[in-house]
Write a structure and sequence with these properties.
By secondary structure, the chain is mostly helical. The protein is built from two helices and no strands. It is rod-shaped, with a radius of gyration of 36 Å.
Length: about 80
């Protein structure tokens, strides 16, 4: 009887191990998907930061030139208020 009980215990243990392996496969799949999405997001963030760093700000130059021309041409010292 001892051998029969050992075989039953081994089969129960084997079933538990197989069930755990199936759970690990789904967990690994989800982990890989999240890792890939995170890597893509990190590369996109780095690319955006580099783009913002190297792109010149043309609007700033335009505003400075506009303010200087407006002040000089619009008001004259000879005009009376």
């Amino acid at each position: 009887m001892s051998k029969v009980e050992d075989i039953i215990a081994a089969s129960k243990l084997n079933e538990l191990i197989r069930k755990k392996d199936e759970d690990d496969k789904t967990c690994r799949t989800v982990l890989w998907v999240l890792a890939i999405v995170g890597a893509i997001a990190a590369v996109a963030a780095i690319a955006y930061a580099v783009y913002c760093f190297f792109t010149p700000d043309y609007l700033e130059d335009f505003e400075e030139d506009f303010d200087d021309d407006f002040d000089d041409d619009f008001f004259n010292e000879d005009d009376q208020v």
